[in-house]
Design a protein that fits this description.
The chain crosses the membrane at residues 12-30. By secondary structure, the chain is mainly α. The chain has one helix spanning 10-34. Helix content is 48%, strand content 0%.
Length: 52
């Protein structure tokens, strides 16, 4: 890569956004699958009415 080339091209920015959205979707799907059969997701397990 030469110094006069732009560091981030429109294609690079596009692929970064697409990759980030894919990771977010994967995390969302994993959380949905892990929460199956539970009343609450894992994020709220520490709030159980006993102050823990």
């Amino acid at each position: 890569m030469n110094w006069h080339e732009p560091l981030i091209t429109p294609a690079t920015a596009f692929y970064c956004v697409v990759g980030w959205l894919a990771i977010e979707a994967l995390i969302w799907i994993v959380r949905r699958v892990m929460a199956e059969g539970k009343a609450e997701p894992d994020l709220y397990e520490h709030v159980d009415g006993e102050g823990r």
